[in-house]
């Protein structure tokens, strides 16, 4: 699955093993490994985490 953010794709291969959130940064570990993503603000990071949990 992919999440589109500011014209870029964030690729997520389920299952997601862990999620860590710190203000505007979201780190997650999925089937392909660990990824860190930084968002413009905390609300956008929150939306991504919500999508990640519900996908």
Question: How would you sum up this structure, described in words?
Answer:
The chain is of the alpha+beta class. The chain has one domain (2-54). Helix content is 24%, strand content 45%. It has one helix and five strands; from the N terminus they run βββββα. The strands form two sheets. Strands 3-4-5 form a three-stranded antiparallel sheet, covered by helices on one side. A two-stranded antiparallel ribbon has the order 1-2. β4 (25-30) and β5 (33-38) form a beta hairpin. It is globular. 7% of the residues are buried.
SSE map:
Blueprint: E1 2-5, E2 8-11, E3 18-22, E4 25-30, E5 33-38, H1 42-54
Antiparallel strand pairs: 1-2, 3-4, 4-5
In short:
The chain has 55 residues and is an alpha+beta fold. The protein has one helix at 42-54, and strands at 2-5, 8-11, 18-22, 25-30, 33-38.
Relevant terms:
55 residues; alpha+beta; two-stranded antiparallel ribbon; 1 helix; 5 strands
What is the number of beta strands?
5
The largest beta-sheet arranges its strands as 3-4-5
Question: What would you call the shape?
Answer: globular
The whole-angstrom Rg is 10 Å
What is the end-to-end distance? 8 Å
Q: What proportion strand?
A: over 45%
Approximately how much helix is present in the residues?
10-25%
The residue-averaged pLDDT reads: 95
**Main sheet?**
3 strands, antiparallel
Query: How many domain units?
Result: 1
Order of helices and strands: EEEEEH
Number of helices: 1
pLDDT under 50 segments (min length 5)? none
The assigned structural class equals alpha+beta
What kind of assembly state do the chains in view correspond to?
single chain
């Amino acid at each position: 699955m992919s999440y589109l953010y500011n014209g870029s794709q964030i690729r997520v291969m389920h299952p997601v093993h862990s999620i860590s959130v710190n203000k505007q940064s979201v780190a997650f570990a999925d089937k392909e490994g660990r990824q860190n993503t930084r968002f413009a603000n905390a609300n956008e990071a929150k939306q991504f985490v919500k999508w990640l949990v519900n996908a």
